[in-house]
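Below is how a single chain appears once it has passed through the pipeline. First comes the sequence as given, then the structure the pipeline wrote out for it. We keep one example in the README because the format questions we get most often are answered faster by looking than by reading.
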Amino acid sequence: MNGRKAKARRRVLRTRNEQLVDAIRAAVPVLQRRTEDGHEVWQRGPLTLAVPVVPLDAPAEFQDAVTAYRMATLTMDCPRCTNEVKVTEAGTYIVRHEAECPGHPDRLVELGERLGVDIERKP
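Resulting structure:
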């Protein structure tokens, strides 16, 4: 593939992904089901999302962090940081939190370990 074709292909994918993000933003999240492993499956336009349920028996600090993660995933807006939302060329939906945001997946794992909350990170 020559340079022009590669640029044109990237442009088409970028346009498609911007349209996907717009469709996701325009749709209202709808709960589909709860799983046995403590997650909820939501549909938002063309996107299917699995998010953890807020553990009511966990410390408040951990509940707040999980809530921030859930809100950012479901609404595209994190209440604790200025996050970035994008769809990759492969069509993967990504929410990127600021590094120190409690809703960042790595911070959630660290917080869970520090507070003794069992947390399973999905791939």
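The longest helix spans residues 3-26.

See the next section for the split statistics.
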